[in-house]
Amino acid sequence: AGRRLRYRMLSKCRNFRGERERRGYQLAVTRRKEEEPSSSSIYNLNDPWTPTLDFTDFINNETIAGQDLVAGVTAGFLHIPHAEDIPNTVTVANSVGFFLRPYNFFDQDPSINSADSIYFREDQDPGACDVNPLACLSEAAACAPDLPAFSHGGFFHN
Q1: Pairing mode, if any, of strands 97-103 and 2-8?
Q2: Which residues contact 28 (CB under 8 A, 6 or more apart)?
Q3: How confident is the model at residue 34 (pLDDT cuts 50, 70, 90)?
Q4: Residues 61 and 111 placed together within one structural domain of the fold
Q5: Which of 68, 131, 137, 156 is a Cys-bridge partner for 32, taking CB atoms 3.0 to 4.6 Å apart?
Q6: What is the pLDDT of residue 14?
Q7: What class of enzyme is it (predicted)?
């Protein structure tokens, strides 16, 4: 049982001109230590070649089995401007990040215990009230508004 860390990144991170800061590592997992409350500093942006707080000092090949852990995750991307950025840059697909998800930590999906969750098997009738209590709610109890059908008149160009 453990955790899975999954990246949503567009490019690999690289060191630049001897840079020793966090950007050189996409992921670094270390033991948690009370005397290491932070692995970066707001002042590191000013001089990445001689950082105020050097992240590489935290990486010392200690065993991590059975320990409280800290994951140093670098998330970033490079945007190269192009003609479609004028007058504004589209940001819909320009995102990076990571997911920290359980991995064989639970016996089943923990969301099954959420309010109003329903679980039924193939041989059960999803319309039966004893199997699916939400199927027997009155229409007034449903919170979804009654919206008219969507229609689109097209685009008009002069």
Answers
A1: antiparallel
A2: 22, 55, 58, 59, 71, 72
A3: confident
A4: no
A5: 68
A6: 55
A7: oxidoreductase
The answer to whether residue 142 scores a pLDDT higher than 70 is no
Same domain, 97 and 36: yes
pLDDT of 93 strictly over 50: yes
Given the DSSP bridges, would you call strands 27-31 and 2-8 parallel, antiparallel or unpaired? unpaired
Give the whole-angstrom CA distance, residue 154 versus residue 152: 6
Give the list of residues 6+ apart from residue 90 with CB closer than 8 angstroms, or none: 84
> Structural domain of residue 117, as residue ranges?
106-142
- Overall domain count for the chain: 2
Can you list the positions of beta strands (E) in 9-108?
A: 27-31, 69-73, 97-103
DSSP 8-state class, residue 67: S
What would the 3-class secondary structure string for 114-149 be?
A: CCCCCCCCCCCCCCCCCCCHHHHCCHHHCCCCCCCC
pLDDT value of residue 71 = 85
Question: Looking at the structure, do residues 98 and 132 belong to the same domain, yes or no?
Answer: no
Q: Who contacts 22 (Cβ-Cβ below 8 Å, separation ≥6)?
A: 28, 39, 40, 44, 55, 72, 74
Task: Please say whether the beta carbons of 49 and 18 come within 8 A.
Answer: yes
